[in-house]
């Protein structure tokens, strides 16, 4: 079914962005089409969305939420990155976090929430970017159906491609509601943690240790 005018060959991998960002008009068409499908789902599940005041507007709300918020990273351009010359030739590890992370599990479409930490080992003659841009990069790649193991690599590879640091580390610690709200119904204290390294960070045990220690310190500072 063609629910928006531009031919995008429809499907992309769930955590990939479309080749071209959607226009406002294309988003409106997608939302309207998705809302009709949510209405069909409600009919199948025997949920009255026609007469129940609690659910009359729910299909439209759900469709709008998915297109404009939860999956927004698939339909938008990547965040603009302002680069600066590394004027002081700074070449030591920089760690930023915790960065708020909200995503959606690709397997059960349940929320994932937690924090990301990014460690950058800049090149003395390379480029650096503003700290807030790391938050926007995390937000961009999280706003789609995701698998945490792939999300951590997508975030890092984008930063590597944009800034070419000597080394990079990305760590995510998150709660998966597909585990806490269904299935084994684990405690909300149960988290998944994974870290991925690039460049010199991948081969230098001392740098890895420094990064993990800084993540712990930032976590403590954030909860103080």
Automatic annotation (TrEMBL):
SUPFAM superfamilies with a match to the protein in the record: Tetrahydrobiopterin biosynthesis enzymes-like
EC number(s) recorded for this UniProt protein: 3.5.4.16
Taxonomy, superkingdom: Bacteria
InterPro entries noted in UniProt: GTP-CH-I_C/QueF, GTP-CH-I_N, GTP_CycHdrlase_I, GTP_CycHdrlase_I_dom
Catalysed conversion reaction: GTP + H2O = 7,8-dihydroneopterin 3'-triphosphate + formate + H(+)
GO molecular-function term, one example from the UniProt record: zinc ion binding
Keyword Hydrolase: yes
GO BP, sorted A to Z: one-carbon metabolic process; tetrahydrobiopterin biosynthetic process; tetrahydrofolate biosynthetic process
Subunit structure: Toroid-shaped homodecamer, composed of two pentamers of five dimers.
UniProt-recorded name of the protein: GTP cyclohydrolase I
Annotated source species: Microvirga ossetica
């Amino acid at each position: 079914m063609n629910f928006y005018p531009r031919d995008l060959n429809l499907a992309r991998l769930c955590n990939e962005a479309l080749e071209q960002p959607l226009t406002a008009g294309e988003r409106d068409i997608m939302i309207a089409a998705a809302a009709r499908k949510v209405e069909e789902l409600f009919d199948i599940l025997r949920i009255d969305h026609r007469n129940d005041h609690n659910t009359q507007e729910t299909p439209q709300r759900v469709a709008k939420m998915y297109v404009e918020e939860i999956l927004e990273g698939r339909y938008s351009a990547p965040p603009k990155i302002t680069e600066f010359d590394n004027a002081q030739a700074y070449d030591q590890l920089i760690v930023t976090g915790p960065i708020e992370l909200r995503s959606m599990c690709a397997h059960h479409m349940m929320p994932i929430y937690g924090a990301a930490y990014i460690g950058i080992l800049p090149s003395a003659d390379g480029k650096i970017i503003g700290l807030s841009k790391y938050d926007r990069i995390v937000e961009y790649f999280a706003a789609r159906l995701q698998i945490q193991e792939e999300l951590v690599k997508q975030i890092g590879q984008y930063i590597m491609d944009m800034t070419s640091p000597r080394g990079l580390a990305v760590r995510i610690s998150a709660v998966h509601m597909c585990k806490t709200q269904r299935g084994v119904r684990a405690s909300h204290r149960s988290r998944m943690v994974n870290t991925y390294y690039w460049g010199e960070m991948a081969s230098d045990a001392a740098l890895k240790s420094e990064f993990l220690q800084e993540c712990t310190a930032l976590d403590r500072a954030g909860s103080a």
